[in-house]
Amino acid sequence: MTVAKGLEGVVALESKISSIVDGVLTYRGFNIDDLADHAQFEEVIFLLWKGRLPKQAELDELKRTLDEHASIPDVLLEQLRQYPKDAHPMAVLRTTVSALAMFDPDADKNDPEVNYLKAVKLTAKIPTIITAFDRLRKGLEPVAPKAGLGFAGNFLYMLTGKEPTEVAKRAFDKALTLHADHELNASTFTARVAAGTLADMYSAITAAIGALKGPLHGGANEAVMRMLEEIQTPERIESYINGKLERKEKIMGFGHRVYKDGDPRAKHLKEMSRQLGEQVGNTKWFEMSKQIESLVYEKKGLKPNVDFYSASVYTYLGIDKDLFTPIFAMSRVTGWTAHVMEQYADNRLIRPRAEYTGLTNQSYVPIDKR
Ligand SMILES: CC(=O)SCCNC(=O)CCNC(=O)[C@H](O)C(C)(C)COP(=O)(O)OP(=O)(O)OC[C@H]1O[C@@H](n2cnc3c(N)ncnc32)[C@H](O)[C@@H]1OP(=O)(O)O
Ligand SMILES: O=C([O-])CC(=O)C(=O)O
Question: What would you give as a GO molecular function for this chain, any one (predicted)?
Fold first, then answer.
């Protein structure tokens, strides 16, 4: 058997949801640049789930349904109050999404229409979970979801208690579009592996959240902000980056398994970081990021991925760094659920093989003789 470590280059399944060909990312055949510049996130959700752009009435209906399902059960809200205030929000999200299954009488019903409604419910409730926990850990009461603000606007509203500016809302909406799906990335693959056993959608999404948490995947956006804060000032960039590279440590937010000549999403986030930095009157994180980008390219030939500039974008939007990965999940859940539904529609158990490299011909030794 030949082993493809990390499954590099292995084509594991067919999908009609998103593709990466020659460095170009498309959702259902639409270039990500086009969607990022023109679409609302809810249109992208519809596109991922239904395979086409919505008409106005369909978009309005999706927004209405998302608003309708945004609340979480009181018992889960009470549980959020009990969790340690220093719990990682990704751990809280993973646990609460898992718990949601127990409050959905149809959790185990595997039917296309019911699964679509589960995708709506999961997408609608994740922002409420993230914002409620963030406020509770700060000693504030959760802000209930407000209908009519849109998905991005409602998140920012529940986080701060204030209706966001149009600029903040548009920037955040665009960031959500850029993170919504990405072919067979690790967390999506995880979701499909779970769905491939015909486990319910809540199980698949809980598993995906666990996979996204790692710093080699979605957790990198938080790690980028930690790095920027650790470096502190532009003068320290060179020695910090050189030190990391000499010790053969990874620079967070750089490199990619598929893109070898740059991630097409990064340029949008870079421009957003520049604009938001100017608007809030603090270009430091953007300027430092730009310098790190040049240096890492010069030293290692590596380009930034989606996580690199999203760190400064979210910071400029006033969001705490440990919420960055939950925000990634809040967008990516739309892609995960689209993939889970695609998996159910034409399922086969996902079960690769492993090349055994362990000991052989061992004989059992009684415990008192070992
Ligand atoms: C949303 C996302 O998930 S995007 C990715 C987010 N993750 C990160 O930003 C973490 C940092 N990046 C990485 O760890 C990697 O680039 C990954 C995990 C994204 C991809 O990993 P792989 O495809 O397995 O690439 P691999 O780790 O084999 O890297 C190939 C070479 O580039 C180097 N390299 C890759 N990324 C980096 C990096 N960020 N910093 C320094 N060197 C790097 C590796 O050390 C290796 O060098 P070598 O050949 O001299 O040993
Ligand atoms: O595709 C990957 O390996 C990681 C990634 O960029 C994503 O999930 O957005």
Answer: citrate synthase activity
